[in-house]
Amino acid sequence: MTHPVIKDLTRRYATKRYDATRRIAPRDMEVIKEALRLTPSSVNSQPWKFIIIESDEAKQRLHATFARKFQMNQKHALEASHIILFAYNPCFTRENYKRVVDVEVASGHLPADKYDEMMDKGFFFAQMNMDETGCNGHWTRAQTYLALGNALHTAARLGIDATPMEGVDKDLIGEVFRKELGGYVCEVALALGYHLEGQDYNQGLPKARLPLEDVVTVI
Amino acid sequence: MTHPVIKDLTRRYATKRYDATRRIAPRDMEVIKEALRLTPSSVNSQPWKFIIIESDEAKQRLHATFARKFQMNQKHALEASHIILFAYNPCFTRENYKRVVDVEVASGHLPADKYDEMMDKGFFFAQMNMDETGCNGHWTRAQTYLALGNALHTAARLGIDATPMEGVDKDLIGEVFRKELGGYVCEVALALGYHLEGQDYNQGLPKARLPLEDVVTVI
């Protein structure tokens, strides 16, 4: 299939080695940031923070979080152009949702007289997803994957290489980036940059997806 | 920002009323199906099934699943061009992962002598995400949101309207589509089509996202 969407999604792959001399242009980073912000989420909850590791100092801090595990990803901390920590709110509250509905009204999206209705109908989904602890982190975590899917598609369109990484030490990240996370939890990160020519074993290999009939059923 | 990525993501919105006379062209549906298949996932697990509701008969079955709740979405079942049920494997097993690694080798992506290494290193992530029941449905559900993010971006590029819906009755869907789901669980669906001109209150409204500084931190 030669459609641009399919070309982009076929060309993208999980980069295993980055060119430490190449940096993403600021104008592309602006697109990525705005694309993250524009990601849709359940009842527009936006229960996320995206911490973008850009400076050498922040990269050293991230590098240190691989001390105990997932060392296969450690080099990306220093060699990739940027790494984005995708963090979710482990306990999305009515107060958090109020902030969203405030913006709904301020932006002109929601008429002010629908405020209470949106609070009730929207927050219902946050409540429906509460677990035995009274929190809804499984639900908010899933929303960050929606942002991850959007970011990966965006990077592919921009010709930027990427590596989604569940192989991050959430506990050490929680300690080292405590201030930036503000109580949010990072269990997945995205390295971005450009692969190191000839040194990335994963580059240019055929895709290994299950056949269409295994995953898609049209009825 | 006038970048095509931002234009697409700004124009897309949760459609609230579909034009029942407009259908997505088969060539666009082929792009959507292939885009779903190409979605990346943790350790390439692909723990999903996408059930595409296309026929009138399947739409009637879906319509019936809104009998008890989420009636605000019921009309989409009949008026949207297509509805995709995103279903996850509630308990992703070593046997399931074997199927993936088989395809890794068969496709030429993975050298045959790395089979056992990929089985062990990859399945570690499925194990890491097992909960007290020994299952990992929270993890596989999150992967389907990655596919949802990819599908929403794809639909936006194709100029197709969409409505992500957590407002679906997972129990009734589980009963009515038991055969197609084969034990997988659907908690989110995506309506696709074209909005009904002048009848969709959500169309053309300003976006209501939190400000960039609330969700993005560059360090």
TrEMBL record, chains A, B:
This protein's record includes keyword Secreted: no
Span of domain Nitroreductase: 10-194
Keywords: NADP, Oxidoreductase
The keyword Signal is annotated on this UniProt entry: no
InterPro entries: NfsB-like (IPR033878), Nitroreductase (IPR029479), Nitroreductase-like (IPR000415)
A GO MF term: oxidoreductase activity
Alphabetized SUPFAM superfamilies for the sequence: FMN-dependent nitroreductase-like
Pfam families linked: Nitroreductase
Annotated family: Belongs to the nitroreductase family.
Protein's name in the database: NAD(P)H-dependent oxidoreductase
